[in-house]
Amino acid sequence: MSDLLNRLGYLQTRRDRTPNLDLARDLAARDDTAGIQEIAQNMWNDNKNIHGDCMNVMYELGRVDPNLITPYAADFIKFLKSKHQNMALGAITALMEISKVKPDFIFKHLDEIKKVAETGSDLDVDRSILALAHTAAGDAEYSKSIFPYMLQHLLSCHHKHVPERAEKILVAVNEDNKIDFVRTLKKRLEALSGSDFTRLKKIIRLAENI
Fold first, then answer.
1. Angle of CA points 55, 84, 164, to nearest 5°
2. Cβ neighbours of 18 (radius 10 Å)
3. Domain boundaries, the chain
4. 95-140: per-residue pLDDT in tens?
5. Rounded CA gap, 142 and 156, in Å?
6. Phi-psi label, residue 148: left if phi above 0, alpha if psi -120 to 50, beta otherwise
7. What pLDDT, in 10s, does the model give residues 145-173?
8. Of 190, 142, 187, 146, nearest to 168 (Cα)?
9. CATH classification of 99-210, choosing from 3.30.70, 1.10.3860, 1.25.40, 3.40.1000?
10. How far apart are CA 14 and CA 3, in angstroms?
11. Residue 46 neighbours by CB distance under 10 Å
């Protein structure tokens, strides 16, 4: 194994992800493109523990600077179909970060992202919705296509998810679409109570003041 891969949590026989986070921060600090490429290539490693750790390093890199992982955006799209849940979740997490700087790429792969939003776990859905929201926020034409889809999601998702998903979609709300956004949220208020009700009311106020 290379010195770089030996820093992965699995190869240090660690059960936590701290080594992977440290490696990501180090690669980002040094803008080590060769090191990042080696990690990216090993997302395809036959050893599931190594490829899982490498995926972890990649999306942590994306959290530091999404631009560092954009060259591997197409790989993340492929991993959305992985039979390993940690790889699929890692991929949508990375794409969520990439959407902040490359909305055009996400827009080209709307079908794949929407599929995650419709069939994934709760975490998958949360991250796919945020990827869509950043994409919509990045371009007015993209918003025309994506925003109605997100409103429909708010109408159809389980009421317990509405406040969190609405918070994520809020990044895409503007003067042109805030009325529809607020109208949609008010339709879901009656199903909420307690902190969820309070949280959604706050989001409505924020949207109304945009």
1. 75
2. 11
3. 1-75, 99-210
4. 999 999 999 999 999 999 999 999 999 999 999 999 999 999 999 9
5. 22
6. alpha
7. 999 999 999 999 999 999 999 999 999 99
8. 146
9. 1.25.40
10. 16
11. 7
